[in-house]
Prior knowledge:
- The chain is built from 7 helices and 15 strands.
- The protein is α+β, with helices and mostly antiparallel strands.
- The protein has one domain.
- Strands 1-5-6-13-8-11 form a 6-stranded antiparallel beta sheet.
- The longest helix has 17 residues.
Amino acid sequence: xxxxxxxxxxxxxxxxxxxxxxxxxxxxxxxxxxxxxxxxxxxxxxxxxxxxxxxxxxxxxxxxxxxxxxxxxxxxxxxxxxxxxxxxxxxxxxxxxxxxxxxxxxxxxxxxxxxxxxxxxxxxxxxxxxxxxxxxxxxxxxxxxxxxxxxxxxxxxxxxxxxxxxxxxxxxxxxxxxxxxxxxxxxxxxxxxxxxxxxxxxxxxxxxxxxxxxxxxxxxxxxxxxxxxxxxxxxxxxxxxxxxxxxxxxxxxxxxxxxxxxxxxx
Length: 266
């Protein structure tokens, strides 16, 4: 019965976010060089006049693991941006992603100004968002189902009538969210696994079965927008089993949503 309770929301989550027709609804992340510039694609001729698009300086690795992402506009607000990620494994082997970090351009001290919502803050956001969706009209039904699936890893404390992030109380000083800089520098994989729910981008290493895809998410917190820049892309650093560090650039949105809607796009 417990397994069934898990499978039903997971299936709904995959169906909703993939739109039933494609795995990737978001933009596909692109490899960048040491200077942060996107590596251009090149054509490699194959038999029969068919072309295979490869990336300079790489083999077909970029097609073996496809990573995409986007802002979820239904669950984002002016100061909180929910970003969804999809990791697709097109190989016959298991892919394991380790030491993953999210960050923005180093200009304007952005990584110190953006917080990765965590600990009790994350539990409070989940509970408040769920309550808000229940109060709104049926047009938010899809978002309501998605927020339920994001709840994997949250447990309800019936005595105190609150939601707790599993493990949020296991480490000291985690009652409030920390900046991306602090999270990336302060915590290793073990600590992160205690700090975030199971399907969170920073919870544990990411394991993708052959021929399948998995989906993750993060919640970013921005404030004092008069001194902030509009965030339309981010970077991902990660390692795979070969211990090679990969860096990708991901455009997370092309159209305005509620998140940072008071900042001029530039």
